[in-house]
Amino acid sequence: MISDKCIIFEYRGKFAHFLKAEANASAPSYPFPTRTVLLGLVGAVLGLTKDSPQIFLKNANLAVSGRAEAAHWHTATLHQTYPAPLALSVSRKSKGSSGDKKLPKRIAQEWLFKPEFTVFVQLPEEYHDKFEYRIRNREWFFTPCLGLSEMMADLNFVDSVKTEQLEEGVYGIETPVRKTEVEFEMSIALEQNFVIKSIRMPRDVTDKRKFSHEAYLYEANGKALYLKTATACKVGKKIISWL
After folding, report:
1. Which carries the bigger pLDDT value, residue 23 or residue 47?
2. Which residues pair with 216 in a beta bridge?
3. Angle between helices 125-137 and 35-46 (to 10 degrees)
């Protein structure tokens, strides 16, 4: 059973990179963490083993708001082989070597600068108290990151409040919303000069690493989107929609 409370915390750092599922030669990033990324983040805080959060936390409700300051394309060099061990006796002129002559692989990665997100997490009851304790006391089991393990994240507890499911209506929703669950109020959208974008992102993943995707809508400048929906929730003073 899902807890009736939602834990809210800040998720920030210097850089972030949330690799797009369809990436090949280059590595573009999603503009914010996907539901699958947030499942992994919660699992890292709790100390769940790899590929188990999507099983134990399958029914968790997750949402995210906020944005990165800017994006930048960075060229990364990936070494495809490990260097051979050095000899027992090493001189100043000794050089490392490798039996494999493959050249390092260079790829372009899209990095997000100064990402600052607010995450909303509603977990199964058996995990709620443990997760809240760890976030409050900054005692996560594994080091949290912003997509890549080298991009360490800082998590700061904000609140733990009861959620209220709202009746169908028009609401200013501050998080990305599933495209199939909303209707536009065009008059408000035009009046507010929204920059509305659509994006397809992973929503679920199995323990065999098979992903299922969903189409989402969001406001590019981080504004609340006014939409008609039956899936809006009130969490404290925020109106959100679960990813």
Report:
1. 47
2. 178, 199
3. 80
